[in-house]
Structures are given as C-alpha cells and as structure tokens.
Design brief:
139 residues; two-stranded antiparallel sheet; 31% strand; GTP Cyclohydrolase I, domain 2; globular; alpha+beta; oxidoreductase; 4 helices; single chain
Length: 139
C-alpha cells in the first residue's frame, strides 16, 4: 500500500485557523421558550497567554445558563473560545469578557461562568462570574 504524503505551506492559513479568526457566537431560537432549563457546557481545552510572561495559560471553562429566547450553537462557542489562544489577557479579564460576549448575544435568563485555570508556579486560580437578566432590567 503506497503512502500518501501531505504537504502544507507554513505561509498558508489553514481552514481551522480561518474559522477561529472569523469566529462569532451564533444563536438559534429556543425550542422551549417559557420553560426554565439549564444548559451545561464544559470546555476543557481553553488557552490564552499571560500578559506579563507570555506563557500559555490553560483552563477548563464551565458555562451554565438558562436560555430565554435564544440558545447558543455549540460549534460557534467552541470556535469563539479558541480565538483566545494567542491573546495576552489576565484570567479575571478573559472570564468577564467571555461572559459579557455570551450575554450580549444570547440574553439568557441566567448565566454562570467558572474558569478553572491549571496551576502554574504553585498558584491555582478559579474565577467565577454570574449574570442575571433581572439585574440588567433593574439598572
């Protein structure tokens, strides 16, 4: 059986890189509006870079939300999350930014994001942020 060689040019943007670069959170209509139910999404391969050292930071993200009128499409959140892999951003900022972007697109009744970063230099960081739709309406 003959082997097939795959050749790629390092100067050519790969299709996955293009999808990540162009990533946007996409929603679709909630199939059960009016029913309160939780959606739990675990993203175990989150990466960004430390803004001070440039070293990579790895985390598992846990997103739980109760949809109102819209549900977020899973592939779009995967690509959106991957768009942070080369960004130099603090743990606290990235966690808040992800939740802000999610809320802006999905407008859930409730959302909670937990970012559990792998220990580095003997320091283990966990950031948790929440959003409640009534908080937005009362402000």
């Amino acid at each position: 059986m003959a082997e097939t060689a795959i050749t790629t040019s390092d100067n050519v943007e790969k299709y996955g890189e293009r999808e990540i670069r162009d990533a946007q959170l996409i929603t679709f209509p909630n199939p059960r509006p009016g029913r309160c139910y939780d959606v739990h999404i675990t993203l175990p391969e989150f990466t960004c870079k430390c803004p001070f050292s440039g070293y990579p930071d790895f985390a598992t993200l846990y997103l739980t939300y109760c949809p109102d009128q819209k549900v977020v499409e899973l592939k779009s959140i995967k690509l959106y999350i991957n768009s942070y892999r080369d960004r130099h951003i603090p743990h606290e900022e990235v966690t808040n930014q992800i939740l802000d972007d999610f809320v802006a697109v999905a407008n859930p009744l409730y959302a909670r994001l937990k970012a559990d970063f792998n220990p580095r230099g003997n320091v283990h960081t966990v950031i948790e942020v929440e959003y409640h739709q009534q908080d937005r309406q009362n402000s």
